[in-house]
Amino acid sequence: MNRTFSIPTLLLLTTISTTAQESLAPAAPARGPVLAPIPAALGLPQPGATNDAPYAPQPILQGGVVIPLYPPDSPLLNQDRVREAETYNMSKAVPGRISSIVNIHNPSIEVHTVEGGINTGAAVILAAGGGHNTLNVGGESADFVPFFYNYGVNTVILRNRLRRDGYNVQSDAVRDALQAIRLVRAHAKEWRIDPNKIGIMGFSAGAELAAPAAVFFEDFDKTNSAPTDPLAGISSRPDFAGIIYPGPTPFARGATPPIPRNTPPAFITCAGSGDRVHAIWANEYFTAMLRDGIPNVEMHLYGNGRHPGDALPDGSRMSGGLTDRRGIPFGTWQDRFIDWFRDLGFLQKPEVETKAAQDIAAFLSQPPRGAGRRGSGGRSAQ
């Protein structure tokens, strides 16, 4: 039987069919709001300008006070290159973070002070590592500024000269470290720093500056005592030393340099068998101090850990500085340092004599250990 439909009925059936087909078709993807492009990061640190004057180092972190270590006409500077700008190697993941610096020809310090209400007067000069090929100021300097701030400790970032740029570690970089200690002590009153609570902490290659500074300060002061030296008469002796996964110390390879009886206390740490060579260098320094009875020398060698930059089984690389190191005990060495630092009185109020100073004074009041001396190092005979 044939059926005929009116025009309104046909229109209704067509609408129903079209609606059914649309309900079976895949839904179009929902369109979100159109976002504006992300703006570029602000306040990125930039190297200073190059002109006819010696290069003016720029702060790595906001608020840093930067002072060159030497006068612009100093014969200790390479006048042929002192105008060259430093090169900042920036993090690829964190905008504005300086990972490392090279091409340092006008060495400097960058001072970060703390609020007066929490200020202990203590100051730590940070000497970053990098194998003398680069200066890893990100993880081994800048990250420590807020860490030490919370304990009322002022921080000073050292930018020393590098072997890759033609400088000698012992005669140039170590000199930079000792000069930094003198410079901080010279300006201690202006920065509300206790002149008896100024020390140095070095990491890896930076520890090759911190360890000699703790041993050779007397020779440095004698050599740099000319009336024309603006810092003549200001001691370069650090009041404490942090020697963190160190490179070769003055006692490496059987060396026996003289150990001053007022050698400052030291905190030493390193991974153990996983970083065997650096652990041996750490142990050589500790053994030399222990043999001569230098007070308050503490060492932590961890059973599990690697040197920063070493490859891990998953293809990544071990981090250094304050990083958690994936939860292993070596990742908490900085807490052990604070324990040691507090125990020696460095976290007291400014101008209060530290236990470290009292112990050294008591040690100096005693006769040297042993009647004889052995070797060129002047260590006590056994």
Report strand order across the widest sheet: 1-4-6-5-7-8-9-10
Query: Would you count the extended β strands for me?
Result: 12
Q: Assign the CATH superfamily.
A: Alpha/Beta hydrolase fold, catalytic domain
Classify the fold: give the CATH topology. Answer: Rossmann fold
Q: How far apart lie the N and C ends?
A: 126 Å
Could you please describe the fold and organization of this structure?
- The protein has 382 residues and is of the alpha/beta class.
- It has nine helices and twelve strands.
- The strands form three sheets. It has an eight-stranded mixed sheet, sandwiched between helices. Strands 2-3 form a two-stranded antiparallel ribbon.
- A hairpin with a 4-residue loop joins strand 11 (373-374) and strand 12 (379-380).
- Helix 4 packs across helix 5.
- It is globular, with a radius of gyration of 30 Å.
- The model is unreliable at 7-20 and 371-382 (pLDDT under 50).
